[in-house]
Amino acid sequence: MSYSLEGKVALVTGASRGLGRADALALARAGADVVITDILLESGENEEVAARFGPMSQVMQSTGVVYTEKTAQEIQEMGRRSMAIQMDVTNRKQVAEVFQKVKEEMGGIHILVNNAGTLDHVSRIEHQNDEFWERDLKVNLTGAYNTTKEVWPIMKEQQGGRIINMASVAGTLGGFGQASYSATKAGIIGFTKSMALEGAKYNINVNAIVPGVINTEAFQMTNPDMRERMIERTAFKKPGEPEDIANAICFLASDHARYLTGIELNVSGGIELFTF
After folding, report:
1. In degrees rounded to 5, what are phi and psi of residue 12?
2. Residue 44 — very low, low, confident or very high, per pLDDT cuts 50/70/90?
3. Are 15 and 28 in contact (CB under 8 A)?
4. What is the mean pLDDT of residues 166-172?
5. Does the active-site annotation cover 145?
6. Residues 6 or more apart from 236 whose CB is under 8 A from it?
7. Which ranges does the record mark as transmembrane (predicted)?
8. I want to staple 206 with a disulfide (CB 3.0 to 4.6 A). Which of 195, 198, 202, 275 is the partner?
């Protein structure tokens, strides 16, 4: 099956590394022009920005695990149009400016992948950091709201579009010590279903990907014992790769998925099954 996305413009949030970067490259290989957005750019003043968003951003910034502009360059080398733009999904004014710029310079936005997220807040409820709780709500849930609200009139004008939201098995199963992350990812699923209902009359399909244990840079930074415990929970006894998520996103963005909306697609290696 060919997931041809020729003539489509995709915008991926949080695409400097990990799942977002893999998604962007896969969409380009399928034929789409792709806009890469992230709070961090290789050429940007990143220290202050990274500090505002917490330990994970600071580690990625300080170790150079930021490939926003590199990803755009790789896509251009495929013969596709691409641009790298610094964007904070919690800043509504900035989101509006970026989406208007993309519409004017790229001709529209046909695919939105809401991938930007935080996942470094892990502690039991009595030790949950109130500021990080608010941050997680703003980035993981309100961020998707901000970008969806901004792309909505563009997709209505185009008489169609695809919005793909990144949830998590933490949102469907819960996660010990992950109250804020799990709550926001569960919220993403509810948001997805509501937007699917509202978007149907405009030919806007809205779906959610539910990743399980995926072998990203962030996953490699977790405690080795914890990594092994999570891997053992999967039916395959191995982590997925970012490309597994990217392939699912290309499917949902393609005409092969034209009658799918409001679904939560598990790409989880069976971690939600009763494994023992």
Report:
1. -115, 125
2. confident
3. no
4. 97
5. no
6. 269, 270
7. none
8. 195
pTM for the model: 0.95
Contact predicate 87/38, CB 8 Å: yes
What architecture is domain 25-33+90-267? 3-Layer(aba) Sandwich (3.40)
Nearest CA among 48, 92, 46, 102 for reference residue 72: 102
Amino acid letter, 54 = G
Q: State the catalytic residue, choosing from 67, 145, 181, 202.
A: 181
How far is 199 from 194, CA to CA, in rounded Å?
Answer: 9
Which residue in this structure is represented by tokens 């039916």? 235
